[in-house]
């Protein structure tokens, strides 16, 4: 057991000054069987600490229904085995380019704009969640012989609001649950962010990608004493579907890291290893003004341009960071663990079974719904990830008029009398061809990821307005969900009535491939040439979303989900399939594009 404190000038361990050389690694973005390897890579790069967020929505998908909360404790134990301290950022909001900023759909659906405020109902939900979660942290604090040295209060709150009562209540709540290690906040190095997000008496830290000296000068105006720390040193950036990849040049990033350390500060490299947004958990962003914002969904890969890439391999940035960190570390750095190996040879998974989306919905979807006057949102249906089929009739007889959707979030494939008529999006939500009545309309709507940052946090998904024929709302709507969670159940597709493949169609496909090589690869990369948009599972494990919009073309397959012998693949295609096969290979680095500037 040891005593970790925040001194007037340094962090201190049993009274002795220490510098934190930390790296972000999110346990929920890395397969558990690979935690030990990735943590060893952090140690080999020269780090003495690991930082992780905690996604509330993963662990409490429904009120009072908790799933594997102990995963955090297992990860902290793995960090301890690796010889690393740990910083925990439990939220309740985490941002992290994660679905809904980590807040459960039932929370934002119930409390709306009252989330992240002093609202008693919202705080009550947080308190119940913390009562389940925080024992995983408390029993692993450094003063009890564990690795946890600090815990964060909320996350970058100064970028969102100014409710000091809310922040103080969260800090008190952590203490009431037994957190005894130092608490801290983190915000951008700007006056309005630090005044909005700081808590008197708690350490404030800053998040930035460059300009350490200027950033710490701003922090010192608000906090004259205490150790300096960059809690998020953005060494890379994340990607959006349909946008060119963003890359930070390794030497430039290494220079910015050196500047932080030359200021005498501690650092948390964000991300040291990014991992993957498995199972459709990627979030989204809004750009522009509040009145005219573009919707930007985040890709499945969270490689982030990190020094340890999505496949667990060291990059040029890794070696440059290791060189810098070695100058500020105590003693020689450990050797790297063996580099992960991909498949020895490419493999093709032939997709031999198929069922249309309607058949998958019958087998795996929610019960047949009652008719409602207006279309329910995903939040009203309690749907986090997946599709909702909205059905509505156009009365007749009537002449052809335009058919469209108000408040569409985010994308809909539309069928009229069983014939596909188009794909609608938020910025183009009217069919090109007018529709006459009577007619039967189906809209298969998918959320591409909930906003994880900014004032649009918690905005509802699905059809949030209505279906319009000319300027008339169509009422009498039937909405039925096909949830990604339904594929997570054991034997999920056993009852699906697969038939022969019909190429090019939307629907659920099933296939297989054989692995005969001795042992098991550490990873593979999976591609679907010619396919449009959907999700892929290997042996029941959801790799995440694919989309021909790019820039990502290859999905990461963790080696622990592969088997020697027969392996099964499911593909849920929602817009239009290519040839009936998937290709698996040794894996490639995420597309890097043209190096750009820093992301500060």
Please characterize this protein's 3D structure.
The chain has 600 residues and is of the alpha/beta class. The strands form seven sheets. Strands 4-5-6-7-8-9-10-12 form an eight-stranded parallel beta barrel, surrounded by five helices. Strands 27-26-29-24-15-30-25-28 form an eight-stranded antiparallel sheet. Strands 19-18-20-16-23 form a five-stranded antiparallel sheet, with helices on one face. Strand 2 (11-13) and strand 3 (16-18) form a beta hairpin. It starts with a strand and ends with a strand.
Based on Cα principal axes, name the global outline. globular
Helix percent reads 10-25%
Instruction: Compute the average pLDDT.
Output: 95
The stretches of 5 or more residues where confidence is low (pLDDT under 50) are 590-600
Largest sheet: 8 strands, parallel, barrel
The count of β-strands is 31
């Amino acid at each position: 057991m040891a005593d970790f404190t925040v001194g007037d000038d340094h962090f201190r361990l049993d009274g002795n000054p220490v510098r934190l050389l930390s790296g972000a690694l999110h346990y929920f973005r890395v397969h558990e069987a690979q935690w030990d390897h990735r943590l060893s890579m952090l140690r080999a790069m020269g780090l003495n600490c690991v930082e992780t967020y905690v996604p509330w929505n993963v662990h409490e998908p429904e009120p009072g229904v908790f799933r594997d909360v102990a995963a955090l404790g297992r990860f902290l134990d793995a960090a301890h085995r690796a010889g690393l301290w740990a910083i925990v950022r439990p939220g309740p909001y985490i941002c992290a380019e994660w679905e809904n900023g980590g807040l459960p759909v039932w929370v934002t659906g119930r409390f709306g704009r009252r989330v992240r405020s002093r609202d008693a109902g919202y705080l009550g939900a947080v308190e119940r969640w913390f009562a389940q979660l925080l024992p995983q942290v408390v029993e692993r604090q450094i003063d009890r012989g564990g690795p946890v040295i600090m815990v964060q209060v909320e996350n970058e709150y100064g970028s969102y609001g100014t409710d000091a009562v809310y922040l103080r209540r969260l800090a008190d709540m952590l203490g009431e649950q037994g957190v005894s290690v130092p608490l801290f906040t983190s915000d951008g190095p700007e006056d309005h962010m630090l005044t909005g997000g700081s808590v008197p008496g708690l350490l404030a830290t800053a998040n930035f990608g460059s300009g350490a000296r200027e950033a710490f000068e701003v922090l010192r105006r608000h906090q004259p004493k205490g150790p300096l720390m960059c809690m998020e040193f953005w060494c890379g950036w994340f990607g959006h579907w349909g946008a060119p990849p963003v890359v930070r040049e390794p030497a430039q990033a290494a220079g910015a890291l050196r500047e932080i350390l030359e200021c005498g500060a501690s650092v948390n490299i964000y991300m040291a290893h990014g991992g993957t947004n498995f199972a459709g958990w990627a979030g989204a962003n809004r750009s522009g003004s509040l009145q005219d914002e573009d919707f930007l969904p985040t890709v499945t890969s969270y490689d982030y341009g990190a020094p340890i890439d999505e496949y667990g391999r060291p990059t040029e940035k890794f070696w440059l960071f290791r060189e810098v960190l070695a100058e500020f570390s105590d003693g020689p750095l450990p050797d790297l663990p063996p580099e992960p190996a991909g498949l020895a040879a490419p493999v093709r998974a032939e997709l031999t079974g198929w069922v249309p989306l309607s058949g998958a919905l019958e087998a795996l979807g929610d019960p047949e719904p009652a008719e409602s006057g207006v279309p329910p949102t995903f939040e009203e249906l309690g749907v986090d990830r997946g599709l909702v089929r909205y059905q509505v009739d156009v009365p007749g007889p009537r002449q052809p008029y335009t058919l469209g959707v108000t408040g569409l979030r985010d994308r809909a494939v539309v069928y009229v009398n069983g014939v596909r008529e188009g794909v609608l999006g938020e910025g183009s939500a009217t069919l090109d061809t007018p529709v006459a009545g009577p007619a039967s309309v189906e809209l298969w709507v998918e959320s591409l990821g909930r906003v994880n940052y900014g004032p649009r946090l918690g905005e509802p998904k699905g059809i949030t307005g209505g279906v319009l024929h000319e300027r008339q709302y169509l009422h009498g709507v039937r909405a039925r969900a096909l949830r990604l969670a339904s594929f997570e159940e054991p034997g999920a597709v056993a009852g699906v009535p697969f038939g022969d493949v019909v190429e090019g169609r939307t629907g659920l496909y099933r296939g297989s491939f054989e692995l005969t090589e001795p042992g098991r690869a550490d990873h593979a990369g999976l591609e679907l040439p010619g396919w449009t948009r959907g999700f892929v599972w290997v042996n029941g494990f959801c790799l995440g979303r694919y989309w021909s919009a790019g820039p990502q073309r290859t999905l990461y397959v963790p080696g622990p989900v592969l088997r020697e012998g027969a392996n099964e693949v499911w593909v849920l295609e929602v817009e239009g399939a290519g040839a009936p096969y998937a290709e698996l290979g040794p894996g490639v680095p995420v597309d890097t594009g043209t190096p750009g500037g820093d992301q500060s």
